[in-house]
Amino acid sequence: MSKGRILAVDDEHFFRVLYEDLLGEAGYTVRAVEDGRAALALLEREPFDVVVMDVIMPGEDGVRTAERIKDRWPDLEILLVTSLRDVKVAVSAMQRGASDFLTKPLNPDELLAVVARLFERSAAAREHHRLLDENIFYLESLGVVHRALCILETLDLDEVGEAILERVLAETSAQGGILWLPTEDNPDRLVLHTVRGLVSTEREPREISWSTHALAPWFERGESVPEPPPGGEAGEDLAQGNAFYIPFLEGRSPGMLIKISDKVAGNQFGAEDLRKATILGPLAVTAVRNARRHRRLARRSIRDPRTQAYDIEFFKNYLQAEIHKSARFRRTFSLLALRITNIADLRKTHDPALLRNRVEDLVGGIARAIREIDVLGRHHDDEFFILLPETDYLGSLVLKR
After folding, report:
1. Residue 227, φ and ψ in degrees, nearest 5
2. Smallest Cα–Cα separation from 239: which of 262, 218, 269, 219?
3. 29 by DSSP, 3-state: which?
4. How far apart are CA 141 and CA 144, in angstroms?
């Protein structure tokens, strides 16, 4: 395994071979070029840890080349090699950013010792930058989370969805956002839940299958991926794009899927935008889980244990939310009204307790026959309503029959 990469720059073939042999035998990977122009061109294409460079060369000398290298790669260590009469030039170059210098004729042991010392400095600088980047990342992440705590302030699922999209759009400077949530009975099936900003819902799918979607490999890894252009391949141009899907996982299961689009000022989304959005993932998934748990608890508290019918006030609130979704997202729903039209006659001929039991058995049977997402509400002893989300008129007729 190589100790590191060294770029040797000298116009004399003898010294280029010397560097390659001596430093190569010491375990370094060495590339050698003949002048400053070739050195700058190679640095643009390949990474190096240390540059060993002659001071006096035809064309652009080592001092000027060192200045240009430091301007472009300020952390790169530069060792200048010069003759005794050019020591002042080398010292001047060190004042402008070069790391050290040696004089010709070279002492092999001294060269290896100086190069090793420069590699230690380079490693220490990289570690310093890594720790600095980690601290900056931590502080930025803390800021994103702090700004997103409002997501946890409500237990209403619709408000949670709005808060999540609002925060994601703010962090990424996106002008449009869409949120799909997995259904509770089938996490692989995600349904459109919230839309915000410049989005045409007619162009977006109401349902997405997590495992069979064209971008499923990215979803399952929890990786952001650009929306493929018309006729383009999935996953093209991963660095940036005008619209991105951002999947959030709950463990290994689908947590939610967000699509952002149209970055402000016509720019493209970059890695920093996606990183900020991803930071919100655990908080957003927790907020949705809490809201759903609260809704289940609320339903139990206002649900008749025998008939499974909801209190009419809860039913009205649920119906109002469904009407809002239908108007905003062009969803369909149906409403069935059930009335026991001969209840007055039955009360005259039946024992009250027996009649109540028979009505409860009837309504309980209906509750067991409808889907989990359907909502059964009880108005009076003889009047009930069934809300059927995502159901058209024909579907309601089938259930009615």
Report:
1. -65, 130
2. 269
3. strand
4. 5
Cβ count within 10 A of residue 194: 24
Calpha distance 316→324 (Å, rounded): 12
* DSSP type of residue 164: H
C-alpha 361: how far from chain center? 49
**Helical residues (DSSP H) of 280-335, grouped into ranges:** 281-301, 312-329
Alpha helices (H) along 149-279: 157-172, 216-221, 271-279
Query: Which pLDDT tens digit goes with each residue over 55-103?
Result: 888 877 788 888 888 888 888 888 888 876 666 665 666 666 677 888 8
For 134, the token pair is: 């980690």
Which residues pair with residue 31 across a beta bridge? 7
Residue 397 corresponds to which tokens in the numbers above?
A: 């007729």
Q: Which of 41, 62, 60, 51 lies closest to 99 in space, CA to CA?
A: 51
CA-CA distance, 14 to 310, in Å (whole number)?
Answer: 91
- Residues 71 and 79: their CA atoms lie apart, in Å, by 16
Q: What are phi and psi of 80, to 5 degrees?
A: -95, 140
Which H, E and C letters describe 191-238, residue by residue?
EEEEEEECCCHHHCCCEEECCCCCCHHHHHHCCCEECCCCCCCCCCCC
Contacts of 135 (CB under 8 A, 6+ apart): none
- The whole-angstrom separation of Cα 217 and Cα 211 is 8
Residue bearing the bigger pLDDT, 258 or 101: 258
What 313-316 contacts at long range (C-beta under 8 Å, 24+ apart), as own/partner pairs, is: 314/377, 315/375, 315/377, 315/378, 315/385, 315/387, 316/377
Structure tokens at 292: 């759903």
Bridge partners of residue 33, in order along the sequence: 9
For the chain, percent of residues with pLDDT exceeding 90: 27
Cβ 287 vs Cβ 163: under 8 Å: yes
Q: Of the segments 131-135, 202-206, 303-307, which one has the largest average pLDDT value?
A: 202-206
User: φ and ψ at 52, to 5 degrees?
Assistant: -110, 120
Residues 107, 113, 119, 124: is their CA dihedral positive or negative?
negative
Section 247-251 average pLDDT: 91
Residue corresponding to tokens 């190679």:
42
State residue 238 phi and psi, 5-degree precision.
Answer: -70, -20
Q: How many CA atoms lie within 13 A of 268 on its CB side?
A: 10
The model's confidence at residue 133, banded by pLDDT at 50, 70 and 90, is low
Show the CA angle centred on residue 28, arms to residues 25 and 30, nearest 5°: 95
